[in-house]
Amino acid sequence: MNDVEKQMGIRNATILMIIAGAFNTYLGYSSFQLAIIIPDSFHTTIGTIMIVCGLLTFCVSLVVWLQKSWAAKLIIGIGVAVCVALIVFGIFLMIIIEAAICWLAINQLKIRRVVDHSDWHVN
Fold this sequence. Notes:
Elements: H1 3-37, H2 41-65, H3 71-89, H4 92-113
């Protein structure tokens, strides 16, 4: 595996986490807009939690881009946290989207961890 393939995996994982952060932030923003139409503290709570999750997901994308060794654990952690929040608030379709994006991002990071033994030379 060459450096180009490693960088593509990191780039793809970063892009996927940015997309997940955008989805979470948009869901929070739309919940705030719904709270304006229908005054309810429940929608405001959903909006606040999802915007915070979106910001955390954007931070995880920065960790992935900086190629930290613990990035996959952060992706799993934020993915589980967002899915639990979505289950609590009853937004079930978004769980499928969020879980799929996190799974793809982790698989893209695993691409860069594969060691190519053909590059090893015995002197």
